[in-house]
Design a protein that fits this description.
The chain is an alpha+beta fold. The chain has one domain (about 1-95). Helices cover about 35% and strands about 30% of the residues. The protein is built from three helices and seven strands, in the order αβββββααββ. It has a seven-stranded antiparallel β-sheet. A hairpin with a 2-residue loop joins β6 (about 115-120) and β7. The mean pLDDT is about 90.
């Protein structure tokens, strides 16, 4: 089940990125994070997604579903709290009881399966997840 949850989380973020690129004619070599020369604001809406870029990350809402994630260079990364929030706000997944320890264990199983990995930055292992394998 956790593999499907993470898959939906990442797929929805990538769908938002696709819609943003389409709306503003961005090429795939252009970063999604807004800067001085980007044609869109830090806050806005694209189709069903309301977005807010901040720091090195983004907060998305699609209806009541919340997505919180960061970028490490061009990679989508997330920590425990954002995936927990996604589960709690997603109508398909909020019916499940996901105690924190269970969720941590299930995320770690995805690391053991080489689907997720912890982010390593400057030789420091962070408890931040990134996708390294096939979610689909």
């Amino acid at each position: 089940m956790i593999k499907q949850i993470v898959s939906d989380f990442i797929s929805d973020i990538k769908n938002f990125e696709f819609l943003l690129r389409k709306e503003y004619n961005l090429t795939y070599d252009q970063r999604i994070m807004p800067s001085i020369d980007h044609p869109y604001n830090k806050k806005g809406q694209v189709e069903n997604y309301t977005y807010w870029f901040h720091g090195n990350g983004c907060t998305l809402k699609n209806g009541n579903i919340e997505y919180h994630y960061n970028y490490h260079i061009h990679e989508i990364t997330f920590s425990f709290w954002p995936i927990k929030t996604f589960i709690e706000t997603h109508p398909q997944y909020d019916i499940e009881d996901w105690p924190d320890k269970l969720l941590e264990r299930e995320l770690y199983r995805l690391i053991e399966q080489d689907i997720l990995a912890y982010l390593i930055d400057g030789g420091v292992v962070l408890q931040v997840y990134r996708v390294t394998g096939n979610l689909y």
